[in-house]
């Protein structure tokens, strides 16, 4: 039997003060957004919450290590829920971005490969995005 933390406890463990909006946003993400998403996706699901509140909440969840940001080259900031044991210290996972529909998919079980670095270089952040055509877009071209 696995034990799943409550959303309230998840926020507390991330050092995030629990508020109704933060709980609503976290639950909405967990229940509806299985892949990477942008603020526009969240706005469609939560039309009564204004954009600036959503943006601030996404920043708080990211700073708390519950989400991570993805720069997939589309020009729109995307987010992905973090599934790591230690939300503040993870190597991250690989993402796939479709160059046609601009959706980004998480490969949660594929860690970013280790890269040999020169002596004295410290990695602060790493992203690994593979670009191509998703199955749906490939089928449109057949």
Which secondary structure elements does this structure contain, and how are they paired or packed?
Layout (H helix, E strand, L loop, with lengths): L6 H7 L6 H13 L4 E2 H7 L5 H13 L3 E4 L7 E4 L11 E6 L5 E8 L17 E4 L2 H6 L2
Parallel strand pairs: 4-6
Antiparallel strand pairs: 1-3, 2-3, 4-5
Task: Give a short overview.
By secondary structure, the chain is α+β, with helices and mostly antiparallel strands.
Description of the molecule:
By secondary structure, this protein is of the alpha+beta class. 32% of the residues lie in helices and 20% in strands. The chain has five helices and six strands; from the N terminus they run ααβααβββββα. The chain has helices spanning 7-13, 20-32, 39-45, 51-63, 135-140; strands spanning 37-38, 67-70, 78-81, 93-98, 104-111, 129-132. The strands form two sheets. Strands 1-3-2 form a three-stranded antiparallel beta sheet. Strand 2 (67-70) and strand 3 form a beta hairpin. Helix 2 (20-32) crosses helix 4. The longest helix is centred in the first third of the chain and has 13 residues, at 20-32. It is globular. The relative contact order is 0.14. Residues 85-89 have low confidence and may be disordered.
């Amino acid at each position: 039997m696995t034990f799943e933390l409550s959303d309230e406890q998840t926020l507390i463990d991330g050092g995030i003060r629990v508020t109704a909006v933060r709980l609503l946003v976290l639950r909405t993400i967990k229940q509806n957004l299985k892949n990477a998403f942008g603020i526009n996706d969240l706005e469609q699901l939560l039309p009564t919450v204004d954009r600036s509140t959503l943006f601030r909440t996404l920043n708080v969840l990211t700073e708390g290590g519950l989400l991570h940001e993805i720069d997939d080259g589309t020009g729109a900031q995307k987010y992905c829920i973090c599934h790591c044991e230690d939300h503040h210290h993870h190597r991250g996972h690989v993402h796939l971005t479709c160059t046609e529909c601009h959706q980004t998919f998480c490969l949660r079980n594929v860690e970013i490969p280790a890269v040999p670095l020169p002596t004295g270089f410290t990695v602060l952040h790493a992203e690994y995005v593979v670009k191509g055509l998703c199955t749906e877009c490939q089928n449109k071209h057949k």
